[in-house]
Write a structure and sequence with these properties.
By secondary structure, this protein is an all-alpha fold. About 95% of the residues lie in helices and about 0% in strands. The longest helix is centred in the middle third of the chain and has 52 residues, at about 1-55.
Length: about 55
């Protein structure tokens, strides 16, 4: 009976891990779009600082 408990824990752990990894992969497109927007904003600020410092 002890083996059945460990098998249940192992199967549940694997299923939970798969669910978490699946959820994280679902978040990649939204997060990558936010990162692209942030990087563009930082580049715009950098370019503006360079332009105003050159005068």
């Amino acid at each position: 009976m002890e083996l059945a408990g460990w098998v249940t824990v192992a199967v549940t752990s694997v299923a939970g891990g798969v669910a978490v990894v699946g959820y994280l992969f679902d978040q990649v497109p939204a997060l990558s779009q936010k990162m692209i927007t942030a990087i563009r904003s930082l580049r715009a600020v950098r370019d503006e600082v360079r332009r105003s410092g050159a005068k």
